[in-house]
Amino acid sequence: MAAKILIIEDEAAIQELIIYNLQQAGYETVSAENAEKAMSIINNELPDLILLDWMLPGMNGIEFARILRHGERTRLIPIIMLTARTQETDKVAGLEVGADDYVTKPFSPRELIARINAVLRRLIPEASDEVVEIDELRLDPVNHRVTDGNKEIELGPTEYRLLHFMMTHTERVYSRSQLLDRVWGDHVFVEERTVDVHIRRLRKALQLAGKDEWIQTVRGAGYRFSAVATLQAKDSNTQN
Q: Is the pLDDT of residue 205 over 90?
């Protein structure tokens, strides 16, 4: 799935330039010219990343970034600041308020896309098109295929997204509500037990590859993806 990027920029020409280049790079875009409109968009659906201009009419970008970082729903959204201010103190101010990166104007579209890719890889790895591979289990986001060695594993769209998220966030426990937010999407109203149904389906699909035990139930907490025991066993057999 293409990452959705919210562009908050009041200069129409710059906004259009960014939208064009991001769409050419395969991203989904939505835009706003001020903080008020941007918040309305965010309240409806969370973007994967925000490009935030420093100098906005009304509330400036620094103030808006501070609000986002203090909001329960918005505090983890990656933010890249866009600004013509080049002083080191200005860059520090942007980073201290919670921005993940800082791009000064004028910038090349290629540089901006490279920065976006880097932030997404670091903070939201499932939003990138990079292949994920763990011990022959290979997930390729470009062609939407999951394979184990030479065998293809058939998955439904929800199971695919669930596996992609879990393979890019290994060894961490996620509750049902967290999985709903990250896999099903913000503001999608489904029962938490729906997660259990799709976990069972995913395990069944992985069972043919002998990897169903990688999806572990953590009693009272949620689910975790872990291949550690399998990899340790392989290392032990290799050493012996």
A: yes
**Sequence-ordered strand ranges (E) for the chain:** 4-8, 28-32, 49-53, 79-83, 101-104, 132-134, 137-140, 145-148, 151-152, 215-218, 222-225
Burial grade of 51 (CB within 10 A; 0-12, 13-18, 19 or more):
buried
Sequential DSSP letters for 129-164:
---EEETTEEEETTTTEEEETTEEPP--HHHHHHHH
What pLDDT digit, counting tens, does each position of 161-171 carry?
Answer: 999 999 999 99
Q: Produce one character per residue of 84-105: b if its CB has 16 or more CB atoms within 10 Å, e if not.
A: eeeeeebbebbeebbbbbbbbe
Task: Please state, in angstroms and rounded to a whole number, the distance separating the CA atoms of residues 229 and 45.
Answer: 38
Name the one residue in this structure whose structure tokens are 């020409």.
Answer: 13
Contacts of 53 (CB under 8 A, 6+ apart): 8, 9, 10, 11, 61, 81, 82, 83
CA distance 139 to 152: 10
Residue whose structure tokens are 């769209």: 157
Measured N-to-C along each axis, helices 88-96 and 61-70 cross at an angle, to the nearest 10 degrees, of: 20
